[in-house]
Amino acid sequence: MSFDETSYQKISAGGRTFRHLFGPVNSRRLGVSLGVDMVPFKTCTLDCVYCECGATNRLSSDIKPWIPAAEIIEELDAYLSLDPHIDVITFAGSGEPTLNSDLPKVIAHVKDRWPSFKTVLITNSTLLFNETVRDAAIVCDYVLPSLDAVSEDAFVRINGPVKSISAAMVVDGLISFAQKYHGHLWVEVFIIEGVNDTDEELSAFKKILTEINPARVQLNSLDRPGTCAWVKPASRNRLEDIASFLSPLNVEIIARK
Ligand code: SF4
C-alpha cells in the first residue's frame, strides 16, 4: 500500500511529541491527512518489496491490541483539541492497521467525538477475510485496500506474506467486503513490471476487480526507494497500457513518474 496519506514525521505540538500520530500531509487524494499508526513500527502481515518503511521486523497475523485504544484516543483528543487544519484522519502507518483489535474502538471514538473529520482506512486487504475486521472497516468513509497480486506466485514474490495468508484469502476477503461496503472504495494496485503485469495476471486482475467494482482502481509504482533494490518504477507507457486494458473500470495512475 502507498503512504501518500501519511508521512512518518512524528508530530510535536502543544508542548509534547506524539508517538502514534503522523503528518499531517497534504495528500494527493484526500486533502490534509492526519496519520494514525495503529501498530508498533513495522508490524505487518506482509513484507512488501516496495515498502517505504523498510523490511518488516514483526511479520504477524495476530489480531490483538498491539497499541491499546486508550493510548491512541488520548493522543488524538489532545492533538485535535489544538484545532489543527486537517480534512481526514487516516488509519495507516508503519504496518497493517487492521492487526490492531482496538481499531473499531478508535474509529468509533473519532466518529463520536470528532464527526467533522472523514475517516480513511488504508489496508493491505490481508485480514478482510475476517468478519470482525470487515465490520471495523465498513464504517470508514473511505477504504483504500491494496491488491498487488492474484496468483500465489506473484503474491509471495511481491508481498512476502505471513505463512497463514494466501492470495486467494485476500481476494475472497476483498470481494466479501466490497459486497457490503457503501463508502468510497479505491483499490490500489502496485505494478512491478515483469512480475504482476503478465497477460495472465492482468486478465485475472480484470476479472476480480470487475467483481469488486470499486469506484476507482489506482495504479501505483515505485516513486520512493523501497525495500528491495531490484524493484524499479514501471514506465508511464506501461501503466497507461494497463489502464487501457482494465477499461471500462475507472482507472487512474497515481504513480508520480
Ligand atoms: S502492507 Fe506492505 S507496504 Fe504496507 S506496511 Fe506492510 S509491508 Fe509495508
Q: What do these coordinates show?
A:
There is one protein chain. This protein has 257 residues and is of the alpha/beta class. It has a domain at 10-184: Alpha-Beta Barrel (TIM Barrel), CATH 3.20.20. 30% of the residues lie in helices and 22% in strands. A hairpin with a 3-residue loop joins strand 2 and strand 3 (31-37). Helix 1 packs parallel to helix 2. The longest helix is centred in the last third of the chain and has 14 residues, at 167-180. It is globular and about 55 Å long. It binds iron/sulfur cluster. The site of iron/sulfur cluster has 11 residues, from loops.
Helix/strand layout:
Layout lengths: L9 E4 L2 E12 L3 E7 L5 E2 L13 E2 L9 H12 L7 E5 L10 H11 L4 E6 L7 H7 L4 E4 L6 H8 L7 H14 L3 E7 L8 H14 L3 E5 L15 H11 L4 E3 L4
Parallel strand pairs: 3-6, 4-5, 6-7, 7-8, 8-9, 9-10, 10-11
Antiparallel strand pairs: 1-2, 2-3
Helix pairs in contact: 1-2
The protein binds iron/sulfur cluster.
Record the strand order, biggest sheet.
1-2-3-6-7-8-9-10-11
**Which superfamily, in CATH terms, is the homologous superfamily of the domain at 10-184?**
Aldolase class I
Using only CA atoms, what is the Rg? 17 Å
Structural class: alpha/beta
Bound molecules: iron/sulfur cluster
Succession of helices and strands: EEEEEHEHEHEHHEHEHE
